[in-house]
TrEMBL record:
Location, primary (coarse class): other
UniProt entry keywords in alphabetical sequence: Sporulation
HAMAP family named among the record's database cross-references: SspI (MF_00669)
Induction line: Expressed only in the forespore compartment of sporulating cells.
Classification via InterPro entries: SspI (IPR017525)
Keyword ATP-binding found: no
Subcellular localization: Spore core
Protein name per Swiss-Prot or TrEMBL: Small, acid-soluble spore protein I
Source taxonomy: Bacteria, Bacillati, Bacillota, Bacilli, Bacillales
Family per similarity comment: Belongs to the SspI family.
GO BP, one annotated term: asexual sporulation
């Protein structure tokens, strides 16, 4: 099966507003279903690739705190 999750997520989210994206993220987290985690990973990857180094450092520090 030649299914690219990155491409599918990107296509499905194309044109969505910030509020739409928030709702998708919050719904995925609220459901807590394992099969939704790759989609959230795609969101994080897109953000990471566009983030500045200071933004990345801030998020990494927050994640460090959460996993401590």
């Amino acid at each position: 099966m030649d299914f690219q999750i990155r491409d599918a997520i990107s296509q499905n989210m194309s044109g969505n507003s910030a509020q739409d994206i928030r709702e998708v993220v919050e719904d995925a987290i609220a459901r807590g279903e394992e099969h939704l985690l790759p989609g959230l990973g795609v969101f994080f990857e897109k953000w990471w690739n566009a983030a500045s180094e200071p933004e990345k450092d801030t998020v990494l520090k927050k994640l460090e705190t959460q996993f401590h």
